[in-house]
Amino acid sequence: SELKFIVLLKRDHTQEQNQINIKIADLDVDLYPKDSVMMVKVNGVEIPINNLPYHHPAGKIQIRQSGEGIALHAPTHGLQEVYLDQNALKVKVVDWMRGQTCGICGKADGEVRQEYSTPNERLSKNA
């Protein structure tokens, strides 16, 4: 099966904040906090919050402000929602992706012992 998306989490231990990078279709999206404001970069270009929602030219991906954070929606690519704010990260996959993911989502099948499995099916102790 072909790779639909990658969601990478980077923890900044000095500021204790999460940053995420989402690779999906031809987009490289970064979501991160900066001076207590959530920031968005698409393919290396910063998108001002007041310019959101951002719609991918093909119309399949949307990035918008959601409460205190930023949400990316790309259901046709398998991602129902990726959400990041100052305190939380949430990754929801669409129903047809259940059992086909690995990493922080596990297989997204409700079974929790296999969380943090790598693509070669080895188990990692943490993310």
Q: Please identify the oligomeric state.
A: single chain
What percent of residues adopt helix (DSSP H or I)?
under 10%
* Domain unit count: 1
What is the topology, as strand order, of the major beta sheet? 1-2-3-4-5
Give the C-alpha Rg.
15 Å
Poorly predicted segments: none
Organism: Lithognathus mormyrus (Striped seabream)
Keywords: Glycoprotein, Storage protein
GO molecular function, one term: nutrient reservoir activity
Protein name: Vitellogenin
Detailed description of the structure:
- This protein is an all-beta fold and 127 residues long.
- The chain has one domain.
- The strands form two sheets. It has a five-stranded antiparallel β-sheet with strand order 1-2-3-4-5, with no helix packed on it. It has a five-stranded antiparallel β-sheet with strand order 6-7-8-9-10, with no helix packed on it.
- Strand 1 and strand 2 form a beta hairpin.
- The chain starts with a strand and ends in a 34-residue tail after the last strand.
Outline of the structure:
It is built from no helices and ten strands. By secondary structure, the protein is mainly β.
Question: Which characteristics define this entry?
Answer:
single chain, mainly beta, five-stranded antiparallel β-sheet, 45% strand, Vitellogenin, nutrient reservoir activity, VWF_type-D, glycoprotein
Layout of strands and helices, then pairs:
Layout: E1 5-12, E2 17-24, E3 27-34, E4 37-42, E5 45-47, E6 54-55, E7 62-66, E8 69-74, E9 79-84, E10 89-93
